[in-house]
Design goal:
With 208 residues, the protein is of the alpha/beta class. It has a single domain, classed as Vaccinia Virus protein VP39 (Rossmann fold), CATH 3.40.50. The protein has a 7-stranded mixed beta sheet with strand order 3-2-1-4-5-7-6. Helix 3 links the parallel strand 1 and strand 2. It is globular.
C-alpha cells in the first residue's frame, strides 16, 4: 500500500519553506559535493525529495541533466526561483516518493540526501526505487544520519527507526557495487536545519 505524506506533514514542510531564508541553505550537501565526480557532464541525474533545490541546482551547474522532485509545492517554487537566479535548467516536479513515476533504468545517477522522513516500510520501497531507476553502471550517492545523531540533535529525525547504519545500507543495496561507505562525525553547516556536530553516514554505490 502506498502512503502519501499526511496533510499535517505536508503543511509543516510548506510552513518551514515559506520563510525567505533557505532552511538548509543554498549550497550543496558536502558529501554530494565530494562524491559527484562519479558523474560526467551530460549525465542524467535524479535528486530525490530535494526541497528548496540546493543540490539539484548545484548539480545542474556542473553540467548534469537534472530531474528533481519534492512533495512541498512551496519548496519546489523556491527551487525553481533558485535555478532561475543561477541560470540553470532543472526539471522540477511536485510529487512524493510514491507518486513520482520512477522511470526504469533511466538515470546515470541518483542523489538521495537526508531522505530520512521515510519510516522502515516506505524506506524499503524507496530504496528499491532508487536502484531500479538507475541504468546499469549508474551510481547512487546517499547521505543520512546514524543513530548517534539522537545524542547531538543538530538535524534529522527524532525517530530511531528512521536512522541508518552500515548494516542497514549494506542489506538494502547488497546487489550493487559499494564504492564508498563511510560512517563519521563532522560539523555540518547547512542553514538552520542542519547545524552543528553531526553523526553521518555516506554511501556511493554502482548498479551492476
Amino acid at each position: 500500500m502506498n502512503n502519501p505524506p499526511s496533510s499535517a506533514d505536508l503543511a509543516r514542510w510548506n510552513q518551514r519553506y515559506a520563510q525567505d531564508e533557505f532552511v538548509f541553505g543554498t549550497e550543496p550537501n558536502e558529501w554530494l559535493r565530494q562524491q559527484a565526480a562519479v558523474w560526467r557532464s551530460g549525465d542524467r541525474v535524479l535528486c530525490v525529495a530535494d526541497g528548496e533545490g540546493r543540490n539539484s541546482v548545484w548539480l545542474a551547474e556542473q553540467g548534469l541533466l537534472v530531474d528533481a522532485f519534492d512533495p512541498s509545492e512551496v519548496g519546489v517554487a523556491k527551487a525553481r526561483k533558485l535555478a532561475g537566479e543561477r541560470q540553470v535548467n532543472v526539471n522540477f516536479n511536485v510529487a512524493d516518493c510514491d507518486s513520482f513515476p520512477w522511470p526504469e533504468s533511466s538515470y546515470d545517477g541518483v542523489a538521495a540526501i537526508f531522505i530520512q522522513f521515510a519510516d522502515p516500510v516506505l524506506r524499503a520501497r524507496l530504496f528499491r526505487k532508487l536502484e531500479s531507476c538507475l541504468k546499469p553502471g549508474g551510481t547512487l550517492i546517499l547521505q543520512g544520519y546514524t543513530q548517534k545523531q539522537l545524542e547531538y540533535r543538530t538535524g534529522g529525525p527524532s525517530e530511531l527507526s528512521h536512522l541508518y547504519d552500515k548494516g542497514l545500507l549494506l542489506r538494502a543495496f547488497g546487489n550493487m557495487e559499494i564504492l564508498n561507505l563511510n560512517e563519521y562525525e563532522t560539523e555540518v553547516a547547512e542553514g538552520a536545519g542542519h547545524s552543528g556536530l553531526s553523526a553521518l553516514i555516506g554511501l556511493v554505490a554502482r548498479k551492476q
